[in-house]
Design goal:
The structure is a homotetramer of 333-residue chains. The first copy, chain A, is of the alpha/beta class. Chain A contains ten helices and 14 strands. The mean pLDDT of chain A is 92. Chains in contact: A-B, A-C, A-D, B-C, B-D, C-D.
Chain lengths: 333, 333, 333, 333
C-alpha cells in the first residue's frame, strides 16, 4: 500500500500517521519528494481500511498494491482450485454442466427434467426451492417441500443438487444439498456469508447485480476467512442502462477472475439474458471465454413454468447445446 | 394490465389464455384489431407475474396500467402517511433531522455527539452497531454493545434512536431501538423484510445501490403486506459510472416517490457522496426537492473515526447546516 | 403502435387524437374497455414521435409493436446483408478479420504490421489517422499524412483499409479509404451520419459508450435513409460501473442484433477491454456468440506505441489468435 | 504524477523510463522501497498520456496528483469566472434564468414565450433550431429559419439568445446567437470543440449522457486551449439503469464542479427528468445545490409542441417557479 501525502502535511502529522501504521504491525518506508511525501507500507495490509485513510486530511491518495483479499488471491495460491460437489469436480479443467428448472414444481417435473438433462451430459441438477421474488405477491417457491423433491430427483439420477438459500435459518433444511447457492441479491448478506464460512459444503456465489468483480472476491473472502474454501463464483449479468436483455452478461469477468483468483468461475446465461433464444449463443461465448461451467435453466414445459419461463430452454434444445459446448471446449484447447 | 398478442396467435391459444386469467379472478376484455388482438384485464393484477406472461409464445408485450404494489400506493391512500418514531413525527410536513456517527465507538463519543446534534435541532439519533463492511477484515461494529451505548445516549438526551439490522437473528437486541434501519445491501433480503413486516416498529428502508424506485416500493410492500405500515423510505445514492462521488445521489427520486407513494421519503447525503464537503449543498438540495428529512453523519472527531470518517461533518458544521435547512424549508413553502 | 388512454380522457379529446393520427395517414382502431380506451394504429408509424405522444395529458402509455427503423429491420429484409469492402465480403457467413495498429505512426510501422497480420489471415487493415482523444494535449493522430501511409500499406499488401472520420470536412481525404469508421463518440453525430448516407462507401458504425442497441440501429437508419445501405455494426463495449476492464463488452448484443437487423455485426475486443491479455478470450467468445468479424489492435512494438499500447497484441499473438478463431468458427457451425 | 513500478522492473528499464520522462521536460524523483520503486514527476504532466504509461510492462500503477486540465482548473484561477452573454453576466453570484421552448416553431410561438418568460424574470431566451433526434424520421428543427425567428424574438424582448449547433458548417448561421450550445451528444465532438475554441462567443457545454465530470472538464479544456475561455458548463442528467425519469440528474456534479473549476455551472432539469411535474422540485434543488443558473423549457401550448412537450411547463408555472427560485437563492446565502 502506498499513501501520497498532501503538500501541506506537517512533520507532526506524518509522525503520528507512521506510529499508527507501526501499531498495526506494518513496516513504513518514507520517501520525501520535492512536492509530496510518499509512504510505502510493508506487511499485511488487508486489515487496513482504505476508506478511512482516504478520509484523513493529510492524505492526497492511497493505492493498494496488493489486493485486499488473501484466501481467494491467485498470488498466494497459483494453481486452480478444484471443488468437489458430491463427487463431481469443478475447476482446473473440470467443467460443470448445471441444468434444471428455475423452480421445483412437482415430483414429475423435477424428475423428468433431471433425467433428460443427465442424458444430455449435465452433471449437476439445479432447481429453486426458496425463490427471491421482487413482489410479495409472486410465487415464493415450494420451500422445504421443494428441497425434498430435489432429493428425490438426486436419488433417481445420481446427480448432485444445487439450490439457493435466502436466510441463515433455512440452512437446517440443506443437509442433503451438495452445493449451496447464494443468489445475486444476497452477495453482500455478510451474516449469511459468515455462517456459510463455518460449514464445509461447497458454495456457489453469484455476483450481485451491481457489484464489481473485486466486491465478488471480497464476498468469497468472507466465506473463506471462516474456513470454507469450497467456493465457486458465478457471473450472471450486471445491471446497466441497456434493456434489450434483462441484464448485461459481463463475459470479460471470466478472464479477469481467472487472473485474480484460483476459484472456479461459471456463467449463468439464462438469468443474464432472460431470453431463451439467447441462451445458446451466450453459452458458447462463455465457454469460449474460458468459463469452468454453465448453469442453464431447462424446463420440460417452459410455457407453463411457474416462474421465469421466458428464459428456459427445452430438454431438446439443451441436448443440442451441450454437444456444441463440447465442440467449443475442444476448439479452444 | 393490457396484453398485446402476436399476430399469429391462434383462437385456441387465446381461449386458453383467457381461461387462465379468469381462473385467477380477473375480468377479461378482448379487442380484435386488424393486426393484433389486445386483452385488457380488470381486477387485482398485483398477483399476476408479468415476467411469466412476457415469456409466453403468443404474447407480444404486456403493460401494467396499475402499479404492482397496493399498500404503498398513493392511489389507494392519497394522504401522506405520518410515521411516529418514539414520539417524533415524520412525513406530512413533519421533518426528520437524523444525525449521529457512522459507528458507535465509545460511550463518550456517542453521548457527546448526541448532545451536540440535539442542541442543533436533530430529533433522532443515528449510530451504527452492526456494520456491513465489504471486507471481512474491516471493523464490523460494536454489535450488541453498540446498541447498549445508543440506549444510554437516548436516556441522556431523550432522542429516539435508529440503527441498522443485518440479519433476523439480531432483532432480539433491537427491543429499545425506535427505528430499525434496513441497509442498501439488504433492500432485497426478502426474508428479513417479511420478518420486519410481522413487527410494529417503524422501519427505515434504504434504497439499494442498483435498485429502481419501483423495486424500492416493492420492498416496502413486502413489509406492509405483513401488517407493518410504518415504513420510511431513504434515497442514499445509486451506483453509476461516475467516480467523483462515491455514489450518484438521485434527488429526482424524491418527487417521483412522492407521486407514487404516501410514505415519507428522507435523504442520506453522507453515504451518497462520501465526501464531507458535499454534505451541506446536497442536504439543502434534498430539502428543496421536498424531502421529509435528512440523515447525516456527524462525528466529534471525524479524522479518528473508526469508519467512514471521510464523509462525517463536525457538530459545528451540523449546527450551521441545520439552520440553513430551516431557511430552505421556509423558502419552498 | 398501441396507445392506452387515461381513464378520464373525454370523448372530445379522443376524437381530436384520432383525427391527428388520421391526418398522418394512419388507420385507427378504437377499443373501449371497462376502465381504459385503447387505440391501435395501422400503417407506417416510424414517423410518429413516441415521446410526443407520451407527453400528452390523456395518454397513459404508448407501445410500439413494430420497430421505429425500416431499412435496417430484418422483418423487411430477412436475408443477411453481405457488404463488399474493397473486394472482401462481410456478413452472411463471410468473416471480417480486421487488424492493425491503434494509430498509424510511420511507414515502416504500418507496412510491417500490415504484412504480418495479412500473413496470419487478416483481410482488412485498420489504423487510426484522426484520433479522438479526451485531452486536447494528447497526440491527435497523423491525420492526412496517416491516411497516405495507410494507402501505401494497402498498395503493398492488397488489404482494403478502414480508418475513422471525425468530421464532415475530413471526408475529402477519404477517397481511397475502403471502409469509413464512425467512432463511438460520433455514433449520434447526426449531421455526419446524414453526409455518409449520401455516399456509397461502406460504413463501420461503432456503438456509443452509453447507447442502446435500438439507438445503434436508429443511427444505422440515418445512414441508410440517405441511400447508403452498406453499414456494418460494431459492438465495442459500453460504460458501466465496473472498472476492472475499460468498458463492459456486451456480447449479448451480437445475437440481439442478429435478430433485429440483417446488417453484419463485428466486435472490437481491444477497445472494449483495454487490456491486451483479455483480447484472446474475448475474441473467441465474440466468435462463439456468432459475430461476423473481429477488429483487433496489433502493434509490432506495443510498449512504444504512441497511443493505447496497453490493449495491443503482438503479431505473434495475433497469429495464434487467428488460428483459434477459425477453430471456434468451425466448432459452432 | 506518481508511478509505482512493478517488483521485477530491471535497472535498465527504470533508466529508460526516466530518460523518456526527462525528454518530455519533467523532473524525476526516484524512491526505492523494499518491494517497490516509486517515481515522482515534477513539472507539466498534462501532456503525459496516462493510458500509455499504464500499458507499460514495468508499471504497476500511475496516479495523477494534479488534474489533466489547466485552463479550466480552479487551482490556477481561484476566482469564479463571470461570463458575459450579450450583456447578461453568469457566474460569480450572477444567476442565469434561461427559458424558452424546446423547438422554435413559429414567430408567434417564440415571441409569445419570450415575452412571457421575460416578464417572469428570465434573462436569456432558449429555443432549438437544429434538433438532434434519435430517428431520421422525426422533426429535425426549422434550422436556419429557426435562428431567424429567435433573432426576431431577441429584437422584440432584448433577451440574448442561446441555441444548439450540431456541426461546424452550421456556424455561419450563428452570427447573432449570443450563446452557442453544444449538446450532450456532441460533448466529445472534438473537431467542433476545436472550432469553437477559435471563436470568442460564449459556449454552453452540456455534459454527455455517459460522461464523467472530468471528461466534461477536458472538453471545456479543448475549447479553452484554443483561446476561448467563455465556457459555461451544464449538468443535464446522466444515463443510468433507472427508468422512472428520462435520465438521472446528478446534482452532486454542481458542488464537485465548483471545487474543480472556476467556470459557471448551470442545470437543465427539463431534459434531465423529461417530466414537466419534476421541473419545479429539481429546479429548486439545483438552486439549493449552488447552481449558477437554470435552463428550463417553457411552452405556451405544451400539449401541441412539436417536440418534447412532455417536459415543458407553461408560462404560468414558470412564473411561480421563478419566484420560488429567488426565495431559495435568498435562503442559502
Amino acid at each position: 500500500m502506498v499513501a501520497i501525502l498532501k503538500k501541506d502535511a506537517s512533520q507532526q502529522q506524518i509522525d503520528n500517521l507512521c506510529s499508527w501504521f507501526k501499531d498495526r504491525g506494518l513496516g513504513v518506508h518514507i520517501s520525501k519528494g520535492e512536492s509530496h511525501t510518499i509512504i510505502g507500507l510493508v506487511g499485511d495490509t488487508t486489515r487496513i481500511d482504505i476508506d478511512l485513510l482516504q478520509g484523513l486530511d493529510i492524505i492526497e491518495s492511497v493505492r493498494r498494491i496488493s489486493e485486499p483479499y488473501k484466501s481467494a488471491n491467485r498470488s498466494f495460491h497459483p494453481e486452480d482450485s478444484v471443488i468437489d460437489v458430491g463427487g463431481v469436480k469443478i475447476g482446473g479443467g473440470h467443467f460443470a454442466m448445471i441444468a434444471g428448472p428455475c423452480s421445483v414444481e412437482t415430483r414429475d417435473q423435477i424428475c423428468a427434467v433431471a433425467q433428460a438433462v443427465k442424458a444430455s451430459g449435465a452433471n449437476i441438477l439445479r432447481g429453486g426451492a426458496f425463490k427471491p421474488r421482487t413482489s410479495p405477491y409472486s410465487f415464493q417457491g415450494l420451500q422445504g417441500e421443494g428441497i425434498k423433491l430435489l432429493e428425490e430427483a438426486k436419488k433417481l439420477t445420481g446427480l448432485p443438487i444445487v439450490t439457493e438459500v435466502m436466510d441463515i435459518h433455512q440452512l437446517e433444511l440443506f443437509e442433503n444439498v451438495d452445493l449451496i447457492q447464494v443468489g445475486a441479491r444476497n452477495m453482500q448478506n455478510f451474516e449469511l456469508l459468515k455462517e456459510l464460512g463455518r460449514m464445509e459444503r461447497p458454495i456457489l456465489l453469484k455476483r450481485g447485480l451491481a457489484n464489481t468483480i473485486q466486491e465478488l472476491l471480497m464476498s468469497a473472502e468472507y466465506i473463506m476467512a471462516g474456513g470454507n474454501e469450497n467456493v465457486i463464483l458465478c457471473e450472471r449479468g450486471i445491471r446497466t442502462y441497456e434493456t434489450a436483455t434483462r441484464n448485461t452478461l459481463d463475459l470479460s469477468a471470466v478472464p479477469v477472475l481467472h487472473e485474480k483468483t484460483h476459484l472456479p468461475v461459471i456463467v449463468d446465461p439464462s438469468h443474464a439474458t432472460g431470453i431463451a433464444r439467447m441462451v445458446r449463443p451466450m453459452s458458447l461465448a462463455a465457454t469460449a471465454a474460458g468459463a469452468d461451467g454453465l448453469m442453464i435453466e431447462v424446463h420440460n414445459d417452459p410455457k407453463n413454468a411457474l416462474c421465469d419461463g421466458a428464459q428456459s430452454i427445452t430438454p431438446e434444445q439443451y441436448d443440442e447445446l451441450a454437444r456444441k459446448v463440447n465442440c467449443v471446449r475442444e476448439a479452444i484447447k
